[in-house]
User: Fold this.
Amino acid sequence: MIISCKQSSEKKTDIKEISDHLEIKTELNLMVPDTIDENMMLIGVINEEGLQNEEFIDWYQENYNDHILDTVTIKLIKPKLNELSIIVFMGTWCSDSQREVAALYKVLKKAEFDMNQLEVIALSQEKETPNHLEKGFNIEYVPTIIFYKNDKEMGRYVEFAQDTLEKDILAILNQTGYKHSYE
Assistant:
């Protein structure tokens, strides 16, 4: 059975209810109650520091440590990262996001990527944020990692690798016609 981070169970709280209760909607690493279960989740713009909060550190550190770097492919990726920006849409509630985003941070650090060019947006289980940061990006599954060069989308990595994270990133950057899992 394949489990996807597209599906959500019966909704208890919607994103509008969350946004109605937020005083500062643009706060970095904003933690709110999950819209489906009893846990907490990050929502809106986040960074690695938010993922290292005590609510998330166990899965973040485990997935970060478990990812074995493909250093040969990272050497090929590194020079192609110049002038790139990356936007990541994830859910802290989603096991695919937990695995892939932790691994992405590890890969980007090894490749010496300018983290100022990385934007990570945490979504609710309904794939929403209070400020609708997801609007116009056609996000159906998380994580969705979108690579941009000169403000033009080069490609996107969605939910899980076709080969490996590093090799999929290289295929996107090489413009080889890479297709993500749902294309």
Q: What stands out?
A: The radius of gyration is 16 Å. The first strand starts at residue 30 and ends at 33. The chain is about 30% helix and 20% strand. Confidence is low (pLDDT under 50) at residues 7-25.
